[in-house]
Amino acid sequence: MTTQADPVTTPLPHSLPALPHTLTGDVLHTHWLPVASAAQVQERGLLGAQLLNEPLVVAWLNGRCEVWQDLCIHRGAKLSLGKVEGGQLHCPYHGWVYAAGGQCVKFPAHPEQTPPARAAARTYRAREAYGLVWVALGEPASELPAFPQWDDASFQKVWCGPYTFRASAPRVVENFLDVAHFPYVHGGLLGTPEMPEIPDYDLAVEGTHITASGIRVYQPDPDGTGVGRYVEYTYRVLGPLSASFDKVSDDGRVFSIFMSVTPVSETLSRAYFAVALNYPGMSDDALREFQDHVASQDLPVVESQWPERLPLDLQAELHLRSDRVAIAYRRMLGMIGMTFGTA
Ligand code: FES
Ligand SMILES: [Fe+2]
Prior knowledge:
Elements: E1 33-37, H1 38-44, E2 46-51, E3 54-61, E4 64-69, E5 83-85, E6 88-90, E7 97-98, E8 104-106, E9 123-129, E10 132-136, E11 156-165, H2 169-177, H3 182-185, E12 202-206, E13 209-219, E14 229-239, E15 242-249, E16 254-265, E17 268-277, H4 284-304, H5 324-336
Antiparallel strand pairs: 1-10, 2-3, 3-4, 4-9, 5-6, 6-7, 7-8, 9-10, 11-17, 12-13, 13-14, 14-15, 15-16, 16-17
This protein binds FE2/S2 (inorganic) cluster (FES) and fe (ii) ion.
Fe (ii) ion (FE2) is lined by residues 175, 181, 185-186, 298.
């Protein structure tokens, strides 16, 4: 007579089953990247996300956000379809209960059994900052991108988006850094086709940080108030997929945007935009509406760009003097060995 293995006491597999989406060894694993709004996670308890092809569940457990692989070790169901109750995550399929930290603490079908240590979700490093949840899939090698206005009470801040682009993340960042498209894509707002010239500007490169300053342009409606004026831009590349600008008017008003892009897959991205301004007169809703409109103008053009992956070979596309910041950005991505979303 053969003895049947007891399905309850049979050891669980030592390693997690292989996912259809295999993790690449991309350098982006060493950077903090945004995956969700912290307020949204707190409100809903948990939500699904995807970063660098890796499906994630972001859950609010015991007063903080945790980020795990979106996979139950039992039968591979998506944990993000489950629920958070009593500070624990319940799998939607057979109700396995996971505690903060990822350890399974209960098999409802066998409540007398203590789940072994191996019955645990794969967890990732997660941080909350600037109202977003940030994840590093590997060992982080750099700090979060700087957003000094976030802690500056003289600035009103409003998160916009995230805007979903069927485009590679570096294409989305490069569009953010591009001033020469304003008269054509954002005519009547951020530029006018009658004034397409871009003045020479200063460029400074320090490691992965790039600063382009002294970019003075006329904008018919720089902030949604409908009042045209000259503004001077300073752009900062803060990392491979984060950047910001300060747009300063002659009277000292500062309109800033901090942006960071989630590379969902090589050709799908979600761009988080935080508008920060140091002058009154605009409601959060009005600012969001303005930014939504600007993003809707960018979307079809960026999604049309070919090749989808940003070419890092500088010979692959033509460049003008006004593209110096884009050239520096491509060089930096090449220098750090970025392969995800680049060609
Ligand atoms: S797949 Fe999660 S409890 Fe069975
Ligand atoms: Fe644009």
